[in-house]
From TrEMBL:
Originating species: Streptomyces fagopyri
Reactions catalysed according to its record: pyruvate + phosphate + ATP = phosphoenolpyruvate + AMP + diphosphate + H(+)
Residues the record lists as binding substrate: 594, 649, 781, 802-805
Leading EC class: transferase
UniProt similarity note: Belongs to the PEP-utilizing enzyme family.
An example molecular function term from Gene Ontology annotations: metal ion binding
Keyword terms: ATP-binding, Kinase, Magnesium, Metal-binding, Nucleotide-binding, Pyruvate, Transferase
InterPro entries reported in the protein's UniProt record: ATP_grasp_subdomain_1, PEP-util_enz_mobile_dom, PEP_util_AS, PEP_util_C, Phosphohistidine_dom_sf, PPDK_AMP/ATP-bd, Pyruvate_phosphate_dikinase, Pyrv/PenolPyrv_kinase-like_dom
NCBIfam families: PRK05878.1 (NF004531), pyru_phos_dikin (TIGR01828)
EC code(s) of this entry: 2.7.9.1
Name the UniProt record assigns to this protein: Pyruvate, phosphate dikinase
Domain PEP-utilising enzyme mobile: 436-518
């Protein structure tokens, strides 16, 4: 905490100087005390201090909760401290809690630092009893209201504090409505509600084995303990593990005097946003429900009206609410959401917080607030995230299109996918082979569905959450996925899905799924390209008259990020086309050009011959044929990236990837032999395939090992690079080639390759007369390389961290195998919150990167450092790479804007402002 005064220590008063203070009046806190008062409590205090009408109350700190959870007992001083604050509250209100003739009533509300499902529900109307309900009736002049409030208390208290099954109360309420032949609860009269109270009390007695407590203080204390205990429910614990919220924060408890929205038509309750959370536009957004208490809005018992209608219902409160919303926005300098209640024409504020918003609104709001002078550009940059930008870059469904939504699940992996419904992987594969687009629909997926998932445009499941198999694997593949759409009934045997309302989707029917919103539509919804991508592609100009407001906002924030970032951003691109696109997206070079793709297609045969060569002459022959082909590839690449660095990785994958499939080949050979016309070449090939077969190809003959074992391979590649560079130079170009050696584990490997490379480069310089400056460096992707980085730096001008392989080798698992098989279990057990292939594992893999950076720079201070694993485009990982001081990150062209943005955010957060 940054406050200079320790807020845990009371100044003077109730608990005595120097002692820990466990209770804060709403007038004592402020919005920066979220650690101690929770989000809700801190903001209630902030509003109180702004002079807004907040019902008085106090907050019990997270510290009290922690003590209670650690020791099983509340801190010794808490009871008296709560008592003192309650007394002060009572004095201010002129009545005591549960006072028989005129009761003070309170709500007990949980509120942790981060809002968290699984925490205890709020209990309203605490303080009502058989006696005080009479007093409330007399005071309000409304019998019905008093008994309605009492039955609500018993219901909420019974359910959330005493653990009684809530349905029992619901059923009894329903029965009362049926008996009375009415459809909504407001039509029940005082006498009905009185009977219901008797029934509710009986339910409590039978189910909880105790009477509903009549002592108001006991009600309050039990509710407070229940809030404390709810910190450790299974649901809350699981949520924290997944969201990486520390388990030791504890929750605060807010005790807030009641205001009543259920006192008749001049009362009501509502929610509001200070601007549209979907577009960012200022206006009147929210819902209002007349004659109701807060929980009715959420429960959807009756229909709410649009907030704008409040103007005609209660103009005075409406105007006041508009002024308060403006005050809040100017104060928080951000979009706020609000809960309020009107009691007989008097407006009360019950909650506010900085509101959630869509990705598009985040960018718009950030720039709108800059224009309003509320925040500066640095702050605007912190108000948006790379994840939001990524979301804006997916193609999306046309908003203008007429759609028929049939369900909604969890938005597990973004994108918009359209295809024919199939209910098993086999059909998915079969249909997609014949050119159909399919959506794979399953109850849930398992490792057997992998091929079907690859074949499908998108995946839809009716079960499972963000960490289910479908979600994890789809995200890993970058495939659109909606999971856990529980209202859709999937029948895989009969190959059909039934939506609420009886719509049946048979195999072959077209469906559309939106992985960014979780919505599922019947039929084909037209897909439109993202305007943000159009902008990055240069097909839309931010300054143009018809430019979208969103594009203009993205443009401004990107420009600022580019100005402040220290990390450079390069692309992983293997050909000129990708390189050009990367350049349009803002790449400052190529960080990884894989050469293996250049060996496929027509050229595979040359590689086969190279591998099969028995003599040097044969080998040289095929290398000689490969050389001009490689050279041409590099010339194109250097041209596309003229003036910018291009890092070319020499051949990396296991050789058998270039050879035919062993089974297919065996069959061919066997058939030929049985016909008696065995093909000499096939036989040799089969032998080679057997010879080169590896149990663990990932850990076998690949990378630098290939270069050392197959004479002439790497030198051919280096020659192609050098000659291409010389040719570009002669054409007045500015090629900046860097030669990168993969999978080095020890400096000796690098030295040998390097010596040969230097010799070849010298030769090319000699023959072409062009002076070449080619940097030679290595990937750091094996633990041994990282551990001996100091030695390796002696032979390397640059390091590029290959964090994919480094993650595999540090953890000792292969991505293809584990992601599809047991990652779901690991994520669900909370072993990691996110796959280490998505976000760099800071503690393990990250610590090797950190120490290798240090050791490398110690040997060679001007060592250039980058990363070319997929982590290079992952927001959180970019922050890590900024922190450890890399020079650049390299990622796929499409992720470049995200990396630029996050590099900017990392550079400006590191000046001291908080991570968001
Ligand atoms: P949540 O975190 O689920 O929003 P809240 O503590 O905000 O829980 O309360 C649930 C509902 O009860 C909200 O609609 C809130 O406005 C309402 N509420 C809470 N305290 C009071 C109170 N003292 N008087 C009237 N309504 C209240
Ligand atoms: Mg609330
Ligand atoms: Mg690798």
């Amino acid at each position: 905490m940054s406050e200079n005064k320790d807020p845990h220590v009371a100044g003077s008063g109730d608990s005595g100087a120097g002692e820990v203070k466990f209770v804060y009046d709403f007038t004592e806190g402020n919005k920066d005390l979220k650690d101690l008062l929770g989000g809700k409590g801190a903001n209630l205090a902030e509003m109180t201090n702004l002079g807004l009408p907040v019902p008085p109350g106090f907050t019990i700190t997270t510290e009290a909760c922690k003590t209670y959870l650690d020791s099983g007992e509340e801190p010794a001083a808490l009871r008296d401290e709560v008592g003192a604050h309650l007394q002060a509250l009572e004095a201010g209100m002129g009545k005591t809690l549960g006072q028989a003739d005129d009761p003070l009533l309170v709500s007990v509300r949980s509120g942790a630092k981060f809002s968290m499902p699984g925490m205890m529900d709020t209990v309203l109307n605490i303080g009502l009893s058989d006696k005080s309900v009479q007093g409330l009736a007399r005071q309000s002049g409304d019998d019905r209201f008093a008994w309605d409030s009492y039955r609500r208390l018993i219901q909420m208290f019974g359910k959330t504090v005493l653990g009684v099954d809530g349905e029992l109360f619901e059923d009894a309420l329903e029965a009362a409505k049926v008996a009375k032949k009415v459809s909504v609860d407001t039509e029940l009269e005082a006498a009905d509600l009185k009977k219901l109270v008797t029934k509710f009390k009986r339910i409590v007695k039978t189910e909880a084995g105790r009477d509903f407590p009549q002592d108001p203080r006991e009600q309050m204390d039990l509710a407070i303990h229940a809030v404390f205990d709810s910190w450790n429910t299974d649901r809350a614990k699981l949520y924290r593990r997944q969201e990486r919220i520390p388990h030791d924060l504890g929750t605060a408890v807010n005790v807030c005097s009641m205001v009543f929205g259920n006192l008749g038509p001049d009362s009501g309750t509502g929610v509001a946003f200070t601007r549209d959370p979907a577009s960012g536009h200022q206006g009147v957004y929210g819902d209002y429900l007349q004659n109701a208490q807060g929980e009715d809005v959420v429960a959807g018992i009756r229909n709410t009206v649009a907030l704008a209608e409040l103007e005609s219902i209660d103009k005075k409160s409406y105007d006041q609410l508009m002024r308060i919303m403006e005050t809040l926005e100017n104060h928080y300098k951000d979009l706020c959401d609000i809960e309020f209640t009107i009691e007989r024409g008097q407006l009360w504020m019950l909650q506010t917080r900085v509101g959630k918003r869509t990705a598009g609104a985040a960018f718009r709001i950030a720039t709108q607030l800059v224009d309003q002078g509320l925040i500066d550009e640095a702050e605007a940059l912190q108000r948006v995230t790379g994840a939001q930008l990524a979301q804006l870059m997916f193609p999306r469904f046309d908003d203008q299109a007429k759609v028929e939504q049939i369900g909604r699940g969890i938005a597990a992996s973004p994108g918009a996918a359209v295809g024919k419904a199939v209910f098993d992987s086999y059909t998915a594969i079969k249909w997609s082979r014949s050119g159909e687009k399919v959506i794979l629909i399953r109850r849930e997926t398992n490792p057997d569905d992998l091929d079907g998932m690859i074949a499908a445009e998108g995946i839809l499941t009716s079960r499972g959450g963000k960490t289910s198999h479908a979600a994890v694997v789809a995200r890993g593949m970058g495939k659109t996925c909606v999971c856990g759409a529980e209202e859709l009934e999937v029948d895989t045997k009969r190959r059909r899905m039934t939506a609420p309302g009886g719509v049946v989707i048979e195999e072959g029917d077209v469906v559309s799924i939106d992985g960014s919103t979780g919505k599922v539509y019947l039929g084909e919804v037209p897909v439109v390209p993202s305007p943000v991508v159009e902008y990055f592609e240069g097909r839309m100009h931010a300054g143009a008259d018809d430019a979208d407001e969103l594009v203009a906002a993205v443009h401004r924030i990107m420009a600022y990020a580019d100005r402040v970032r220290r990390l450079r951003v390069r692309a992983n691109a293997d050909n000129a086309e990708d390189a050009l696109r990367a350049r349009r997206f803002g790449a400052q070079g190529i960080g990884l050009c894989r050469t293996e793709h250049m060996f496929l297609g027509d050229r595979r045969e040359l590689v086969e011959r190279l591998i099969l060569a028995d003599t040097d002459a044969e080998r040289e022959e095929s290398l000689k044929e490969l050389l001009p082909l490689q050279k041409r590839d590099f010339i194109e690449l250097f041209e596309a990236m003229d003036g910018l660095p291009v890092t070319i990785r020499l051949l990396d994958p296991p050789l058998h990837e270039f050879l035919p499939d062993v089974t297919e080949l065996s069959v061919r050979v066997a058939l030929a032999e049985s016909r008696g016309d065995a093909n000499e070449n096939d036989l040799r090939l089969l032998q080679a395939v057997h010879r080169l077969h590896e149990q663990n190809p990932m850990l076998g003959l690949r990378g630098v090992r290939l270069g050392l074992v197959i004479p002439g391979l790497f030198t051919m590649q280096v020659r192609a690079i050098a000659e291409a560079a010389a040719e570009r130079r002669n054409a007045k170009g500015d090629p900046r080639a860097e030669v990168m050696i993969p999978l080095v584990g020890t400096v000796q490997e690098l030295e040998i390759v390097r010596d040969e490379a230097d010799r070849v480069i010298a030769e090319v310089q000699e023959t072409t007369g062009v002076e070449l400056k080619l940097a030679i460096g290595t990937m750091i992707e094996l633990p041994r390389a990282a551990l001996t980085a100091g030695q390796i730096a002696e032979a390397a001008e640059f390091f590029s961290f290959g964090t994919n392989d480094l993650t595999q080798t540090v953890w000792g698992f292969s991505r293809d195998d584990v992601e599809a098989s047991f990652f779901t279990a690991y994520l669900e057990k909370g072993i990691f919150g996110v796959s280490p292939f998505e976000t760099i594992d800071r503690d393990g893999v990250g610590s090797l990167v950190r120490s290798a950076v240090k050791a490398g720079r110690a040997t060679r201070p001007d060592l250039k450092l980058g990363v070319c694993g997929e982590h290079g485009g992952d927001p959180e990982s970019v922050h890590f790479f900024h922190e450890v001081g890399l020079d650049y990150v390299s990622c796929s062209p499409f992720r470049i804007p995200v990396a630029r943005l996050e590099a900017g955010r990392a550079a400006s957060t590191s000046k001291g402002s908080d991570h968001r």
